[in-house]
Amino acid sequence: MNADIENLDHDLKLKLLEHITAFITEDRRARFNEVLKQRTRHMTIILEDIYQPHNASAVLRSCDCFGIQDVHIIENRNKYQVNPDVALGSAKWLTLYKYNKTQSNTAACLRSLKEKGYRIVATTPHTDDFTPATLPIGKPFALLFGTELQGLSEEAISLSDEFIKIPMFGFTESLNISVSAAVLIHSLTLRLRNSEVPWALNEHEQTDILIRWAAATISRSNVILSDFLKKNHS
Question: Residue 169's pLDDT is what?
Fold first, then answer.
C-alpha cells in the first residue's frame, strides 16, 4: 500500500474505503468481506532463499487458500520468482515482505518478527521438537521454510525458537517444500480455527487490506487514490 495511505488515520481510511469500493460490485465487496473474515496474522510464513518458481508460487497459493495474509521472503543468494501459472493470482491478495537489503537478510527478517512478538518455528526433519498436532499455537508464530536441497541456513536454525517436523512413515525423510508448506499451513490454520485463540484480523488490519484488494481489482486505481489524497490529506 502507498506509504501516504498507510499514514492516514483510521477514520480517513474508512472514508477512503467507502470511496474506492464504490468502484467495485456489491458481489465483489461481499466476497472480499467473506474471505477477510478467515484471514490471519497470528500465523505467518517465512521463506528463506526459495528460488524454484514452482515451489515459490505453490506456497503463495497455499497461503491464500488457507487464510494466511503475510509472507516474509528472504533473498540472500536467490531471488524469489513466481510462476503465474501456478500462483493463479494469489500474490495480489497477500501481503509480501522482502528482505534483500543487508548482508544478513535472514537475521534482519527473524529479529524483526521477534520484535513484533512472533516465535520463530523452523521446519526441519532433523530436529525433534513439535509436530503439527503438538505445536503451541496460543501466541503468534512464524513458520520458517528453507530450500528443498539445502534446507535452512545455520543462521536461521540458530535464531529459531522452536522446531517442527511432519511425521513420516516411509523411506523418504522429507516432502517437497511446497507440499510440506501446504500440509503444515492446513493443519495449523485448522487448529487455530477450532481453538479459542483470537486469530482473526482486527478492524484496522481489515480496513487496510480491503483498500488494497479493491485497488488491485479496479482500473486506474492509482489515479483514484491520488485524487483522494489530494482532496483529503494535507
Answer: 87
Judged on CB neighbours under 10 Å (0-12, 13-18, 19+), 177 is buried
Report the greatest alpha carbon distance in the chain. 64
Whether residue 103 lies inside any domain: the answer is yes
Q: Is 28 helix (H, G, I), strand (E, B) or coil?
A: helix
Tell me the whole-structure pTM to 2 decimals. 0.90
Residue 29 forms part of a structural domain: no
Number of neighbouring beta carbons within 10 Å of residue 171:
5
> What single-letter DSSP state applies at residue 149?
T
Residue 144, pLDDT score: 96
Identify the H or E element spanning 163: strand 162-164
Q: What is the CATH number of the domain that holds 71?
A: 3.40.1280.10
Q: What cell does 11 get?
A: 477514520
Residue 86 burial (10 A CB sphere; 0-12, 13-18, 19+): middle
Does 44 map to a domain? Answer: yes
Measure the CA–CA gap between 57 and 46, rounded to whole angstroms.
14
Name residues whose C-beta falls within 8 Å of residue 191's C-beta, 6 or more positions apart in sequence: 132, 133, 137
